[in-house]
Write a structure and sequence with these properties.
This protein is an alpha+beta fold. It folds into 2 domains: 123 residues, no CATH class; 119 residues, no CATH class. Helix content is 30%, strand content 34%. It contains 8 helices and 17 strands. Strands 1-2-5-6-8-7 form a 6-stranded antiparallel beta sheet. A 6-stranded antiparallel beta sheet has the order 9-10-13-14-17-15. It has a 3-stranded antiparallel beta sheet with strand order 12-11-16, with no helix packed on it. α4 packs antiparallel against α5. It is globular, with a radius of gyration of 20 Å.
Length: 293
């Protein structure tokens, strides 16, 4: 066998070993630590921690947990370890003890900020990350969550039911298919390019997708929130078209520390005709690098 063939064979073996390690990732201990079963997509095990204990209002709209209070933690296999990213929803008094507990146990805190304006009481969002043994990281996150009032026993899944907005027209306007979750119509729209962190591609389920949520508010109207995942060159064109469409920009910030290319997250809010808002969201998406409809 030639040297070139040996190099190719070694590279293939390493690739296959890494793929198998990711595929064989055993999350049963993490399931037990978190006392819940994850959603799985893009090779990511994603655990939800909605703040169903909180009653938050914005401009008279009572926020559903799946609309803007849905904390989560995602695990993805990486060379025999896991990469972890997540977003914990906290009250102001919970921020300091949670941050201290996470840092003391080796979990990174990568961002802390608001997503909404005029929220009563105001929730805060702590983005976290880490690499290593999944059981150790899960134990550290669980210990931090125990310092909050986050429900750690999952509630029974709610029936999907009907949602009182024209989802077919919303799908058509956005050029994507949404899903009903907890009384909210949700979209996760992947970028056409790739964002990496420490040489691993960050899949949509781990936090690289643009998220758009519609919560019906009656009469064909909906409140919308979420965040666009954008590069630096896309920020001003995006927020300009959103504002021109009557969409309030509520936050612009980072979620990660070591990603390439540098990425920003633009959060938004409006409460108006749902189809009109979907059309405005599409105009915003067209200012970013997402697949065209």
């Amino acid at each position: 066998m030639t040297i070139s063939s040996l190099i190719k064979a070694s590279a293939l073996s390493l690739c296959l070993a890494t793929t198998v390690a990711a595929a064989d990732l055993d999350m049963k201990k993490v399931d037990a630590i978190f006392a819940r079963t994850p959603a799985q997509s893009d090779g990511v095990y994603r655990y939800g921690f909605p703040r169903s204990d909180l009653s938050v209002t914005v401009d008279g709209v009572t926020i559903k947990p799946s609309f803007a209070l849905g904390g989560w933690v995602g695990f993805k296999g990486m060379d025999g370890k896991v990469m972890v990213m997540g977003d914990l929803v906290l009250t102001e008094s919970e921020i300091a003890p949670v941050m201290a507990k996470l840092l003391a146990n080796g979990v990174e805190v990568t961002a802390l900020h608001n997503h909404l304006l005029r929220a009563t009481p105001p929730p805060f969002y702590m983005h976290i990350g880490g690499q290593g043994d999944p059981e150790k990281i899960a134990t550290a996150i669980r210990a931090a969550l125990e310092l909050t009032k986050t429900p750690l026993t999952p509630s029974p899944a709610a029936a999907a039911g009907n949602i009182e907005i024209d989802t077919a027209k919303i799908d058509e306007a956005l050029g994507a298919k949404g899903r009903v979750n907890g009384g909210v119509y949700q979209f996760a729209i992947a970028r056409a390019d790739k964002i990496t962190d420490r040489e691993m591609v960050i899949p949509p389920a781990l936090g690289s997708a643009t998220v758009i949520n519609f919560q019906p508010t009656g009469g064909g109207k909906a409140a919308i929130t979420g965040d666009f995942t954008v590069l630096a060159s896309e920020v001003v064109p995006l927020i300009s078209v959103l504002r021109a469409s009557g969409i309030e920009v509520t936050a612009i910030h980072s979620h990660m520390l070591d990603e390439e290319p540098r990425s920003f997250f633009v959060h938004f809010w409006a409460n108006d005709d749902a189809v009109k808002l979907a059309e405005a969201m599409r105009a915003g998406l067209d200012k970013t690098n997402v697949p065209r409809k």
